[in-house]
């Protein structure tokens, strides 16, 4: 069916492989990522490439330079060379791979892309231009209007990327899937931090359902939820039991206070919640998920209310833990989970 002129057409989501689903988008602006520079962004500014929303196409929409495109798009190159952009990651991390998304770029996508990385304490463009760059994704062919899910073999941690397109064209979105590293390494022993925050290295290991909204990873995002789609929401349960997710802390820690935020969830918030926790060494995500059924209770079942922040301090003294299992009864939506505490002595 043809779209109605002026109506946005959104790109379908990527069918993410396991390595991406279990990772964090290190290039998320919500984690502090920034597009710092582009050799050329005549048709569409490079900042759009990091927009967390799906790319859209608006029929009939033009600006002073031509067709409005949702992404980064350079002009047609008429000299030797290629275009490139500098991106600061939201947090330093080990990169598992990329989604180079050319959604809605059909006759104007780049035929190839490569990505280099470096570690820098400065965001100064001139300093970054002169930095020593390491290629972590060799030149790779791209196609039109597609998600390109590309694995990265590097095991080092990086802070900045140089995205090269050959020779020119447009990228709708860039997602950089990986794991934040070392965010809590130098935290003072007496400091209270959110041990499971995404920016501190926390991640969602597994969850039994995420039919609505985002995956359980959304629980760990900075700030309060933006709307009812910005959280973890399960389907309506029609059988006995309850929904759950398993989360890994950024570093072993002692949890002192729990916050459960049901922002925007009103007719669909969970009736109750509880937390289990354990110190886990070794194993895989799958084995850890199986073990989580038998972990000790950190927070017994407590009632929840709609659209509210709930704070719990009456926690079992379990000592240092590495993982938690967050249970909701019987189902519903939660916007954010905060686990405030101290980093365990090393």
Verbal overview:
The protein is mostly beta strands. The protein folds into two domains: 9-180, Jelly Rolls, CATH 2.60.120.260; 193-343, Galactose-binding domain-like (Jelly Rolls, Sandwich), CATH 2.60.120. 5% of the residues lie in helices and 42% in strands. It has helices at 18-21, 125-129, 285-291, and strands at residues 9-10, 24-25, 34-38, 56-57, 62-63, 66-67, 72-73, 83-101, 112-118, 134-141, 147-151, 157-166, 170-171, 173-180, 193-194, 203-207, 212-213, 232-233, 243-261, 272-278, 296-303, 309-312, 321-329, 333-334, 336-343. Strands 2, 3, 8, 9, 10, 11, 12 and 14 form an eight-stranded antiparallel β-sheet that branches. The protein is globular, with a radius of gyration of 22 Å.
Please report the distance between the alpha carbons of the first and last residues: 60 Å
Q: Work out the strand percent.
A: 35-45%
CATH architecture of the largest domain: Sandwich
Task: Give the full name of the CATH homologous superfamily of the largest domain.
Answer: Galactose-binding domain-like
The largest pleated sheet is described as:
8 strands, antiparallel
Anisotropy-based shape = globular
CATH topology description of the largest domain:
Jelly Rolls
Q: How many strands?
A: 25
Mean pLDDT: 95
- The H/E string reads EHEEEEEEEEHEEEEEEEEEEEHEEEEE
Helix content: under 10%
Q: How many individual helices?
A: 3
> What number of domains?
2
Indicate the low-confidence ranges by residue numbers: none
Organism: Azoarcus sp. (strain BH72)
GO molecular function: allantoicase activity
Catalytic activity: allantoate + H2O = (S)-ureidoglycolate + urea
EC number: 3.5.3.4
